[in-house]
Fold each of these.
Amino acid sequence: MNTSTRAPERAQPRSAVRSLLRLWPYVRPVRGRLAAAALTAVLGSCTSLVIPLALKWLVDGPVAGRDPRGVWLGGAVVFGLGVAEATLFMLRRVIVARPLARVEADMRAALYGHLQRLPVVFHDRWPSGQLLSRGTNDLTLVRIFLAFPLTFLIVNGVTITAGFAILLAQRWTLGLLLLAPVAPLIVLCWFFENSYSRLARTAQDRAGDLTTVIEESVLGIRVIKGFGRHRGRRREFSALSGELRGIELRKARLLGMLWALVMTLPELVIGTALVLGVLQVADGGLSAGTLVAFLSTALALRWPVESIGFLLAITQDAATATDRFFEVLDEPLPTAAGTRAGAGTGTSTGPVEGTSAPARTGVRAAAPGSCGSRAPARKGTRAGLLLEGVEFRYPGSPAGAEPVLRGVDLHIRPGETMALVGPTGSGKTTLTALVPRLYEPTAGRISLDGQDIAALPRERLRELVSVAFEEPTLFSATAGENVLMGAEGAEEADLMRALRIAQADFVHELPEGHRTQVGEQGLSLSGGQRQRLALARAVVGRPRFLVLDDPLSALDVHTEALVEAALREVLATTTALVVAHRPSTVLLADRVALLSRGRVTAVGTHHELLRTSGEYAALMTGRGGDGPAGAGRGGKAR
Ligand SMILES: Nc1ncnc2c1ncn2[C@@H]1O[C@H](COP(=O)(O)OP(=O)(O)OP(=O)(O)O)[C@@H](O)[C@H]1O
């Protein structure tokens, strides 16, 4: 199986109790209810221990004395005690149901909130299935633990202690006999816990991997079908599912062995006690009522003892689930503003080699200082979008690997549109991701109108910068809601304007207009329609800075021309960085920056670069292999 679908493995020896204690902040608000439920269960369990004492009175009294009224009375008491026990256990369930649903919901909300705030580098590292399984299966396991083992390990402890006190009081010799298996059972449980916890961790991790495979297969169903890969995918799925099945079987075998021993040992000693007790009754050393009471008490203790293995198994599953939950929650959030977060990945965030001014082969910017000055005297005071000595290396890239971006200096003046052109893999998308701080530069600085973006509160940054990515992601919501996500507080008029600019008027023809639900990931729309909605989302908030990653790639020539015309209107009032592969998109820009192997190697107008940069000319005419063809068809040369 592809290991890239696996989360960072962190299975380490740990104490189940210490793991579960971390749940306290979530359990604290419902501690009163949980305590009341435990108390109710203890009362119910103790009621069950009173039944043998009533039986003793019944056998030694009314039954021995042939007193029918006494027998009826005794029977009624035993019946009443049975009803009371059942009622108390039912009450316990009623008391815990609602608060435990709340604990689960609170934990899920905390996980979801944290996931939303974690940086993109975290999501690059973690497979989505692992996160899904932590937010669903694992939290269910925690709720089951709080509902059963947490209460019943306490209840059973109290019941077993009280039961043995009754047994010892009735016949201490037989009582001691029943206590004999306790020591071996404790050792057995200890061994079980150690082995089971390792298996539980592996099983839950593999379940997360399996979720990732299912999710990828569902999302990628078109590719799988298109390439006839379903057999291969099924084999991959079966292998992983077989691995999980094997681990679950080992868990079941381990639990079965524990259960068998936990059941057999008490049965053996109860059998022995029965034989010895009968002999003592025959000798006249023990009353029949006492033997009945003794054996009924011993039998009443069977379930509390036998269930220990099962309760410990759920406890281990829940401890593992808690660890997995907190592994995500412990991931540090990026600092609000003011520092380079480095995204908590252990990546060097300090300056590294290669921040020197890039070698330029092409034309300098028309205005002095608009490109190329590494550390200008008026640092941070220039309006527009300014990148100074920006370097970026993806977290987790091999030591000594070249940074993806090196010494990038670029100044986009207010109101200017800069096209970013470069061969595939040169770092264009990476550069655009740095402006809205989806990633943090490993060196250098980016400023908007003189303000370092690392010092800007994220909300402010989101107001200033809007983005449309190459891959237009839409959500399961209405077309209008997808667009309005682009701006806080935007209204219907803004929506209409954005739809018009993005040439997304097709929305009005949908069955319910902009209130039509678009499917998961917008799959009910064509690629070009999704791209236009994504573009509308980027412009709906009238951002000061616009970053567009090849926004017109999926449009037909006719629609592209319409969108370009409308985009010009927007670009005239914003400062924009537009990744462009096609000459027609380049022609929307005032100037062009050529990115080559992570460096800006030339900046100028389209025509200047065509004249002076061989690499640019090759890209635009398609002679460079990676670049678009058909450059210079008409177009504006500014
Ligand atoms: N999340 C990531 N983790 C590690 N490396 C990455 C990641 N994303 C991109 N890269 C690497 O960074 C380099 C630049 O990628 P980027 O997507 O920025 O190029 P690009 O110029 O936008 O390419 P294209 O024109 O094909 O979209 C590539 O070598 C790519 O393999």
Amino acid sequence: NLCKREYQRRTGIKRSARLPPGPSAIPLIGNVHQLPTEYQEKTFFEWGRQYGGIVYAQLFRNPAIVINSVKVARDLMERRSANYSDRPIFTLLEELLGWKCMPTQMQYGERYRKHRKWMQDTFLSKPVLLSYQPIQRREIYILLSRLSESPELFETHIRGFVAALLMEIVYGHKILSLEDEYVELAERAGTESVLVGSPGSGILSLLVDFFPVLKHYPLWLPGSGFKVKTNYIKGLVTRFLNDPYNMVKEKMTAGTLTAFILAGVVNPGVFKKAQEEIDRVIGNDRLPDFEDRKSLPYMECVLKELYRWDAAAVLGLPHRSMAEDVYQGYRIPRGSMIIPNIWGMSRDPVQYPDPEEFLPERFVDSSKPEADDYNPRNFVFGFGRRQCPGQLFADGNVYLVMSNIIATMDISRAKDEDGCEIITTPEFTSGLVRHPKKFQCVIKPRSEKAINLIARMNLSV
Ligand code: HEM
């Protein structure tokens, strides 16, 4: 209730500052009716093309800032991180599904900072990361031997690999089989939580984030099926709650690795070129290791392109502004949901011509002054104080799995009954975490020597 002048004196913000441009809203609903139920990142991207790098929208009565530009995302969530590191409250996820105490959802403050420090000590410190390497190697050798024995189950093997690795590192729980009860529980709790927010679960489950009162909707009324479902999932989640990282990161890592196989099928030339580099630098008598990474520049370009092309966390995780702010002359209201359209950033046609193509060559020249800013590894893991604490670990993993698969396996197109090659068009799921839809391919060990090498490495760990 401050007068205009007093408000400006205290906050430095002109009351008259305009909101950023954006699509026109209608009363009560705001812009929600303009959002499709699937692939919302594409609509956000279109808004970016129409209105610029920073777009204002209203999701019911909640202000939202959609960011399609890496620069704007950095300016706000990194350079002004003290104001942009909170998270919006998601009623569905936190209260109805029971994920409230996850660090991903935690409100910014003293308690969060303590958790963050713990997460950084666990996943970002060099000595700790080094101590994980023997486990990573061992699990990768197991993955390679499973791939050579039953390559058609490659997606199951990749998921099993990621689950085993994270379970052992986070809990010290060693997974011996894919039927492990804990893996199954983690998988079900995560998958069902992501699915319940999808359109198939009914409009109530989507609305409840914007009208939290709906969580009290009586179970016997029509449309309340979602509540029965959320109660069931809450049971799963509660049983699994001691795991601080479970829900999305497993899917992101496994999805990224599967996308790499897909990229190999769609673009066999890239796979061949990476294989030639490994043969030349490492040879066929041993497998690539962490220390080899700096000697494999083409592989590094493949990795960057994989992060860009797949952009697993399409909209990142939204942040929330804690106080009103002004940016580029626009007013950003307090409590705005800040949505970084990471997928949109990865499709910037100026930085990445032909953005849907998988072209590692676009990263070969790293001498451009803005190369660092547009290195996808520097934005697919999010921004500022909420940036993914698992990124170094995940990145090391993706590198090692990719280089070991390239060194030992050939990937090619599957054939139909008439012996004709099946041409795969890459398709990705919609949702919080994007991963490739089912596709066919042939994976087989490159040679007898590769099979023996895998067997030898399995015995050595
Ligand atoms: C390729 C794999 C991965 C990708 C692409 C990824 C991406 C992301 C992104 C975009 C965010 C949101 C950052 C933000 O709010 O600005 C995030 C947060 C987070 N990630 Fe990851 N992540 C991956 C793997 C992992 C792994 C392996 C772990 C743990 C072992 C992990 C743990 C977390 C946690 C705890 C947060 C929440 C951080 C916070 O709110 O402070 N992630 N991740």
Amino acid sequence: RPPAYPPGPPILPLLGNIISVWFNVKKLKYRHKLWQIWSRKYGNLLGLKLGSINVVIVSGKEYIKEVSSREVFEGRPDGFFYLIRSFGKKLGIVFSDGPAWNKTRRTVLRYLKYYGYSSKAMEANISEECRELIKLLEKNVGKTVCVNRLFDVSIVNILWRLVAGKRYDLMDKRLKSLCDLITRSFKVSDMSGGVLNFLPFLRHVIPNQIGYTELKNIHASIYAFLKETIEEHRMALDVHNPKDVIDALLMEMNNQKDKTLTDEELQVVCLDLLEAGVETVSNTAVFLLLHVVREQEVQTRVQLEIDREIGHSRPPKLSDRTRLIYTEAVLLEALRISSVATMGIPHMALDNAKLGKYVIPKGTFLLLALYDLHNGVHWKDPTIFKPERFLTKEGNLIQTEWFMPFGTGRRRCIGEGLARSELFLFLTHILQKFHLKLPDGAPLPSTEPVDGITLSAKEFNIIFERRF
Ligand code: HEM
């Protein structure tokens, strides 16, 4: 028999699995939970049809690695949901593919590095944001602080200093509302694109109910901010002294012969960096606080390690990472247990391809089950926050292929180094100075996340107490 499409639940004409997905997600609350349950039933390659689109859920480290490493699966979906954020075209880095993606990814990385990415300047940049954040927390010592959006502006600042050469005050109203917009856009749907992707004509019938109106308005506001930023750069551009990534890309635009780099492309690149680089780190940092306030022994062990290896007279540095092994294990455990990018970013088959004993038709979306990889059967007591699982008996860090929060292969995250540095410096700066506790009588904050494009923590409060 010729190879078939991977197995899955029964497919209805026209709608495919949309109705059963809708009912089950309502019941289970999380899409990744449904994919997990169905994958256990049908296998590590779960074949679905959502509307007219084939969607395969890829589970287990072997298949996730295989899909991430084969060129034929290097595409990104071109469904309606993905393209409304980029003028109806495949632009930028995150949702483009082919030679244009490759060129843009390499160019942007080159300029990010030139302007300080992964260098000492980057460390100075993150450290400055940590100092500003500590100042803000100093003003709130002893008070009840809702921490869910605590890191947003700091994280935009770190990225924005490279991209646009500026930072904002942590209380800046415009930047805070920009961050709120990004957060809201991440809650409208999930990485599969939802109804808007699979039944896009519904936007003409029930635009509000399926999130179309909201997404359109959000993107219009974010683009207004980006256009203004780019215009300011264009007016002030000094061709002898480009100051940041936007300047460098504007110069490249002026000098190019093939006209491939357009204004729209530049705007989408900026949007990509903001969307991919802010919610992911911010939500993981908030989960970190959630876990260390819940697990007071973990918090104490990190503080003892900081006291022993760094002391109180100087701030933490990235070079301390090699000695703060337990703290590193805490970061890895937070990235594992809270896996904010539950299904990575969807890949798309660029041609018909064989995978295992099945055939994946051209145009199929492939969602990588990263949450399941990190919280599935491989891990002992996966729901328990246990940093020791990342440590050998001798106290060294364990590397495992069952852990790939940033993906793998040519489409892997370009922000891994930055994200890990940010998380390390935020956590150590905060725990060096403060003890984190819950307000009197408050219940333990829930580890149950809120669903969306990335998972986030439910609202909770912390009291920051000065340690010395
Ligand atoms: C905890 C933080 C982060 C997590 C968990 C995370 C996770 C991921 C994952 C799973 C992917 C998809 C890999 C794939 O398609 O196979 C990805 C892609 C990407 N990430 Fe991150 N990321 C984080 C932070 C960042 C930061 C700080 C930046 C900004 C510099 C960033 C920029 C990107 C970009 C541009 C892509 C698309 C790459 C491409 O399609 O070629 N991410 N990330």
